[in-house]
Write a structure and sequence with these properties.
The protein has about 160 residues and is an alpha+beta fold. About 30% of the residues lie in helices and about 25% in strands. The protein has a six-stranded antiparallel β-sheet with strand order 1-4-5-6-2-3. The protein starts with a strand and ends with a strand. The N terminus is likely disordered.
Length: about 160
């Protein structure tokens, strides 16, 4: 279930979670987001670059927010998300890219992160066509170019695969 992340980065766990998905990338992304934002509430889209993100860049993705979550578009997808999806989602709608078994839930979580204007973390699973289960963890972090409207979401993504039953 999605939960708001409201504890300071120093208190965020960096160990493997109970569900077995490593949280380090998501926690580093939350810390990165907070550092970019200071002293404002939100970082802007232009602040998120390969240079500022450094080794975290491969775990990051950026989604453009619209009025309809089904029309949110990936404007950047790091290597980790591309590997999990088996394709590059850049320039495509989330609704057209996400596996059907998680699509509605993920659209809801993305919409909620934008509406609440707060970080939200999420973990879940989908099964690929080859029978491999993809166990994933993501955090969604609001971005605002004007400090009023959330116009992008910065996401961090990590995953591992297991052979399905």
């Amino acid at each position: 279930m999605a939960t708001a992340l409201d504890r300071p980065a120093a208190e965020s766990p960096t160990l493997t979670s109970v569900d077995g998905i490593e949280r380090r990338a998501c926690n580093l992304a939350l810390q990165y987001w907070r550092e970019l934002a200071a002293p404002r509430h939100f970082p802007s889209r232009e602040q998120v670059t390969a240079d500022t993100a450094a080794e975290l860049w491969d775990h990051l993705f950026i989604v453009e927010v619209t009025d309809d979550p089904g029309s949110y578009i990936y404007v950047h997808a790091g290597a980790v998300l591309k590997a999990a999806l088996g394709a590059d989602p850049t320039g495509r709608k989330l609704a057209d890219v996400l596996p059907p078994s998680i699509c509605n839930r993920e659209l809801y979580v993305h919409k909620t992160a934008a509406a609440l204007r707060n970080p939200i973390d999420e973990a879940g699973k989908w099964t690929r066509g080859d029978g491999e289960d993809v166990l994933y963890r993501t955090v969604l972090l609001p971005l605002s170019d004007d400090q009023r409207q959330i116009n992008y979401l910065l996401g961090a993504f990590s995953f591992r695969t297991t052979h399905g039953d």
